[in-house]
Amino acid sequence: MRMKSLERYTDSPDFEYATSGHRACQGCAEILALRLGLKVFGKDTVVAMATGCMEIISTPLPTTSWRLPWIHVAFENTAAVASGIEAGIGILMDKGKIARKDISVVAIGGDGGTSDIGLQALSGAMERGHDFTYICVDNEAYMNTGIQRSSSTPFGAMTTTSPPGKKSFGQATQKKNMPKIAVAHNIPYVATACPSYPFDFLAKIKKAKAAKGPAYIHVLSVCPTGWRIPSDQAIHYGRLAVRTGIFPLYEVENGRYRITYSPEPLRPVAEYIKGQGRFRHLTDDLIARIQDQVNRDWQDLKSYSEMK
Amino acid sequence: MSTKKGMEVSIAAAEAAKLARVEVIAAYPITPQTHIVEHLSEIVANGELDAAYVNVESEHSAMSACVGASATGARTFTSTSAQGMELMHEILFIASGMRFPIVMAAVNRALSSPLSIWGDHSDIMAARDTGWIMLFCENGQEVVDAIIMAFKIAEDRRVLLPLMVNLDGFSLSHVIEPIEFPAQKDVDRFLPPYEALYTLHPDKPVTMGAYGMPELYTEAKYAQEMALRGSKAVVKEVMGQFAKEFGRTYNIVETYNVEKADTVFMALGSINENIKTAIDNLKEQGKELGLVSPRLFRPFPADELYEFLKGKKKVVVLERVMPAGAMNGPLFNEIASLAVTHGLNAQLENYIFGLGGRDVEPEELMETYEQVASSARVSHADNKNYGVIGVRS
Questions:
Q1: What integer pLDDT is reported at residue A281 of this predicted model?
Q2: B209/A72 touch (CB, cutoff 8 Å), yes or no
Q3: Rounded distance, CA A89 to CA A145, Å?
Q4: Is some CB atom of chain A closer than 8 A to the CB atom of B71?
Q5: Is B324 exposed, middle or buried (CB count within 10 Å of its CB: 0-12, 13-18, 19+)?
Q6: For B116-135, what is each residue's pLDDT tens digit?
Q7: What residue of B is the nearest CA neighbor of A95?
Q8: How far apart are CA A278 and CA A294, in angstroms?
Q9: Which residue in chain B has the smallest CA separation from A69?
Q10: B330-367 as b/e, with b when 16 or more CB fall inside 10 Å?
Q11: DSSP state for residue A4 in the 8-state scheme
Q12: Under an 8 A CB cutoff, do B74 and A91 touch?
């Protein structure tokens, strides 16, 4: 993406920290989000990444797609690894063993690595107040292992472990509200984002980078492979997720909610649902239930953002 | 100038970490490790140690944060016990596979269930094949000296592996002993600051923790195994340097009354002191029993053990862990291997003792000696290959 306006967000608009040659699926919005987001963090950054799609597509020994210091340890502990990195860099600077400069520590995990198995480590790291940014790249299921449901999989979605059948309509639970959990830790910055809205996303990364203390960014990352959509439709479905209110874009600065892009009037959720293979089995009744839930959630979000 | 103080061994372990100038500590409290981390928190809070103390929310995160910190090049220390060691089990393998010289004081304790906060070796024996170097200590002085040596061994460029210093929960961790502390300037000379080979730093970006495809995984693990096996020579070397610097001599296998005795006991940890008492008591009765105790358990010092065991008539392996359906306890199985690999030709006997903090008095050890001495092959209840000292069935 060589557009002039990137320069408003980053000193290195042309430099690729996530290089080409990785093994992400065609049309993957997750690697797109990281490619853009890391440009904002820039070269003085250390990345800790959870096991998952982004890890597995980028680092088969002896190759790497990362031109930043990068570490992968395990699935559920990325926030704890980042805690150790922040502590290590901090004490080595204090002792004068490495030169003092502003180094961003960025932890990256998928929705499973964040809202399921990594939730405890993340909660601990946010509570302790480490100066780091956690980016959850949410593709709404365990895509790396073959599309199994997570607590971030939306209501009604088909995955290989939430299959529709005689006694099932797919995922029977509501998507876990991870940003709200992050907000409950009273950290300085929380935001949702989607690479279909790149400048909104980049502005939020910039704020997260500048925040003193933990920042959490929850990125809806459309997964053509897992969502059963054509690989050239990732940006389109990201936009629809926002415009239908299914995935609203907002930020929470020091506890204050602000909707950063208002999609009102909301498009019907059916526009988002129709065309995605993972929702193919949904009846009109179920789609109506989803619409009701989205309406309620949107009103709730608006009420939070109006609170002073 | 060194100073001698009466001190609880846990506090002394924390003081040793301070002498080693650890830079990051990430730990989660668990009995009986708590006094170590409490004291470390205190000396960091008081500014006596220039270190970052990360109050993690679990042992899994403790070891994960240690890995992250070690990856930046910081000298990193933690401590745990029992369930905590099990919770961090996954990351123990990763710490060794990624070759981070983290040092951990493992305060050995029983594993649930039933819940028991008291000492045995269930925890460390479940973690024995995680690729860490493992030292066992018999008394508080050994704990202090082992922690100081641990960093020098682990950080050696020929090694670069994590190291556990094992001490028995309560029966060692909570006793007060006279301990000699070396002077800081002498420790500083013995143990210079850690200079990591690779670190996570923007000036020189590296990728750590990449995954191994089938064509590389075996070679990566083989290289790690060679480093672990090779660390034995470095352990010996560092013990030699330590003796020269501080005047206390350690060996990877320690013995007691082993020359005269045809029968030897073999055990790990603080029980050795009771075994020595039993040996002294037996000697008064005109009976000779020896003790052979590996201080280095991983890598396993097979050759060095064999030097002491060859020619013995009876070797009795005592261990603080239930075999869990195995033929024998894990230490016995190693010794039994010596019969095949080194031609050890002795009557081998195996006893389980001291589970979940059960005391074993020198008298019981003397009875065990008599049982073995009077039989060419001890037969045990339920056709087991091992006896369980003091068990009520």
A1: 98
A2: yes
A3: 33
A4: yes
A5: exposed
A6: 999 999 999 999 999 999 99
A7: B50
A8: 18
A9: B205
A10: bbbebbbebeeeeebebbbbbbbbbbbbbebebebbbe
A11: G
A12: yes
Query: Which residues, numbered 86 to 115 in chain B, qualify as contacts with chain A under a Cβ-Cβ cut-off of 8 Å?
Result: 90-91, 94, 98
With an 8 Å Cβ cutoff, are A85 and B76 in contact?
no
Q: Are B147 and B176 in contact (CB under 8 A)?
A: no
The three-state DSSP-derived secondary structure of B328-384 is CCHHHHHHHHHHHHCCCCCEEEEEECCHHHCCCCHHHHHHHHHHHHCCCCCCCHHHC
CATH code assigned at A276: 3.40.50.970
Chain B: residue whose CA lies nearest to A117: B60
Local structure of residue A23 (DSSP, 8 states): -
> Which of helix, strand or coil describes residue B255?
strand
Question: At a CB cut-off of 8 Å and minimum separation 6, what does B222 contact?
Answer: none
Chain A and chain B share a number of CB contacts under 8 A equal to 172
In order along chain A (308 residues), what is the average pLDDT of each group of 10 residues? 73 92 97 97 98 97 97 98 98 98 98 98 98 98 97 98 98 98 98 97 97 98 98 98 98 97 97 97 98 98 87
Alpha-carbon dihedral sign for residues A270, A274, A278, A283 = positive
Supply the range of the domain harboring residue A260.
4-306
Identify the CA nearest to A252 among candidates A196, A300, A187.
A187
Residue A109 neighbours by CB distance under 10 Å:
31
Of B294, B298, B164, B293, whose CA–CA distance to B227 is shortest?
B298
- CATH number listed for the domain at residues B3-246: 3.40.50.970
- pLDDT, block means (10 residues), chain B with 393 residues: 93 98 98 98 98 98 98 98 98 98 98 98 98 98 98 98 98 98 98 97 98 96 98 98 98 97 98 97 98 98 98 98 97 97 97 97 97 96 93 91
Alpha carbons within 13 angstroms on the beta-carbon side of residue A215 total 25
Question: pLDDT for B301-319, tens place per residue?
Answer: 999 999 999 999 999 999 9
Distance from CA of A284 to the nearest CA of B (A): 45
Residue B346 vs residues B73, B152, B294, B315: alpha-carbon distances, Å: 48, 37, 18, 6
Quote the tokens at residue B233. Answer: 């020579």
Count of domains for chain A: 1
- Taking alpha carbons only, the member of B154, B141, B229, B162 closest to residue B191 is B154
Cβ distance B26 to A91 less than 8 Å, yes or no, reads no
> Hey, where are the domains in chain B?
3-246, 255-388
The reply to whether residue A120 touches residue B57, judged by beta carbons under 8 angstroms, is yes
CATH class, domain B255-388, is alpha beta
Calpha distance B52→A92 (Å, rounded) = 10
* Omega within 30 of 0 (cis) for the link into B114: yes
